[in-house]
Specification:
This protein has 14 helices and 25 strands. It is an alpha+beta fold. It binds one RNA strand through strand 11, strand 14, helix 10 and helix 11.
RNA sequence: CGGCGUGUAGCGCAGCCUGGUAGCGCUCUACUUUGGGGUAGUAGAGGUCGCAGGUUCAAAUCCUGCCACGCCGACCA
């Protein structure tokens, strides 16, 4: 086994992550602290996420629109909790011009009358717009999504997981009733569950956030929580029921069937480029990325192998035939004809890039009119299948792609199950499990916000969510307060 | 904003203590070789040593100031 440029996960997960980003050419740092350059291969992952979501948004009746990057400072001040939540991390534009400073440099000139905040999220400017768009109950529901970048001035950043500028979609909807708005909130959460489970092969736990972790200005915040390869949690998408907080602040009113003025109920929901980080950390191994076929920019890499010139022609001919057939069938396939690299190098190269299937074609395969297929979700030789016939190659490959898709999901699920701990009667056990095992700690919980803070401070474990559909079980004893409760919460270390 | 570090080739670093011709690995270019699990060789390319000032015959090296970045703490999709 040759040297690898990737730090083993067990040695230092954080370095492993950064190594993968570099080696697989996903992203790199930029001259601006906390901002990253998303390279084509990394951007392709975002595009895959975007395509899945955009299609589902439209299927569920939403329309895309675009709102300004700049938000008047006064807008942000209209919803009290919202201000408090975001004020500390806003970038502000105060000037409109640069002029020579007399020392060869430039200095800001002509101050703005009202400073403009670069959107950290768009509830306010969209609230303002919705107030103009909504007059009658016939205008509802109003179902809008925006694909955009936002800026949050974060103290500590990590590529994809937390950057100062990030790409995301933010859905914003307005409804006549609380019930409809809540239904929408949960419907979109479910779209996120589907994205994770059915496309990204990441099992997630949909749940409600505790009051502490709630979005600034929301009545309820729902989340999908995924487990990464180091057993930490990653909040991978959120959906908020905003009640009438923003409609009150921005005057989003309508006349109902009975000619009575009513405030709308709004929702907002988002998935960001953080999800790319989830894709990397949920599946990756010591050889690099492992991408689920449905999200992989390249699903099949064909590596031709030859020794002598006369072998080369025959090998390339068969490789080309395989390429044509797969491409014809709509499979994202790459024929690796790079001359100066050895097959071994290429094997490792495509594995690092997480390509689900590798097809090897050498002289022996030409002779047998077959190929060798290597499946990325199984390590080394275990993943290899010899003698896959060229006849019906497309069907075979499609079958293998399904297998990798399912395999990655099952592995991620098994990993999560193995790292979820439920038998935690008291604080001592909680502490012991947190220290020695980590992962998800599923407990009865009746603690206060302050109790939550204390746990975060002492044990680095945060309240991830109250899993949906598990809150109506039998009574149990809260491990922290000792109170009887039906509430079940998950605690974990999180990004 | 507090604590600790680091700035030398695209990237990663040595050299600094003890001042004296700017080095190593990777990368990159050309050619050759190799090819079923990260081939090897030859020849090349690439640097205002973060910036400014000072000491000195002489500064990457010593001194002063500044700037930038990284890690750790309070915030977070």
């Amino acid at each position: 086994m040759a040297e690898t440029a990737i730090t083993p996960r067990s040695e230092d997960f954080s370095r492993w992550y950064l190594d993968v980003l570099r080696e697989a050419e996903l992203a790199e740092n930029s001259p601006v602290r906390g901002c990253m350059v998303i390279r084509p291969y990394g951007y392709a992952l975002w595009e895959a996420i975007r395509d899945v979501l955009d299609r589902r948004f439209k299927e569920t009746g939403h329309q895309n629109a675009y709102f300004p990057l700049f938000i008047p400072k006064s807008y942000l001040e209209k919803e009290a909790e919202h201000v408090e939540g975001f004020a500390k991390e806003c970038a502000i534009v105060t000037h409109s011009r640069l002029e020579a400073d007399g020392e060869g440099g430039l200095k800001p000139a002509s101050p703005l009358e009202e400073p403009l905040v670069i959107r950290p999220t768009s509830e306010t400017i969209i609230g303002h717009t919705f107030a103009r768009w909504v007059n009658s109950y016939r205008d509802l529901p109003l179902l809008i999504n925006q694909w955009a970048n936002v800026v949050r001035w974060e103290m500590r950043t990590r590529p994809f997981l937390r950057t100062m500028e990030f790409l995301w979609q933010e859905g914003h909807t307005a409804h006549a009733t609380q019930a409809e708005a809540m239904e929408e909130t949960l419907r979109m959460l479910d779209v996120y569950v589907e994205l994770a489970r059915d496309f990204a092969a990441i099992p997630v736990i949909p749940g409600e956030k505790s009051a502490n972790e709630r979005f600034a200005g929301a009545v309820n915040t729902f989340t999908i929580e995924a487990m990464m390869g180091n057993a930490w949690a990653l909040q991978s998408g959120t959906s908020h029921y905003l009640g009438q907080n923003f409609s009150r602040a921005f005057g989003i009113q309508f006349l109902d069937e009975n000619n009575v003025q009513q405030l709308v109920h709004t929702t907002s929901w988002g998935v960001s480029t953080r999800f790319v980080g989830a894709l990397i950390m949920a599946h990756g191994d010591d050889k690099g990325l492992r991408l689920p076929p449905k999200m992989a920019p390249i699903q099949v890499a064909i590596v031709p192998i030859w020794r002598k010139e006369d072998e080369k022609a025959a090998v390339l001919q068969q490789a080309q035939a395989a390429f044509d057939a797969l491409k014809q069938a709509g499979i994202r396939v790459k024929l690796d004809t790079r001359e100066h690299l050895t097959p071994g190098f290429k094997f490792n190269d495509w594995e690092m890039r997480g390509v689900p299937l590798r097809v090897e074609i050498g002289p022996k395969d030409v002779e047998k009119q077959s190929v060798v297929v290597a499946r990325r979700h199984l390590p080394g030789k275990d993943g290899k299948i010899m003698g896959v016939s060229m006849l019906g190659l497309v069907e075979h490959i499609q079958g293998f792609l399904d297998e990798v898709q399912q395999g990655l999901y099952q592995q991620a699920l098994a990993f999560r199950e193995a790292n979820t701990h439920t038998d935690i009667p008291d604080v001592a056990t909680f502490q012991k499990v947190a220290d020695e095992k980590g992962g998800f700690l599923k407990v009865y919980w009746a603690g206060s916000n302050e109790d939550e803070d204390k746990i975060k401070e002492d044990l680095k474990m945060t309240h991830r969510c109250y899993p949906l559909g598990e809150q109506d079980g039998p009574l149990g004893r809260c491990f922290y307060t000792g109170k009887q409760t039906r509430q079940i919460a998950i605690f974990a270390r999180a990004y």
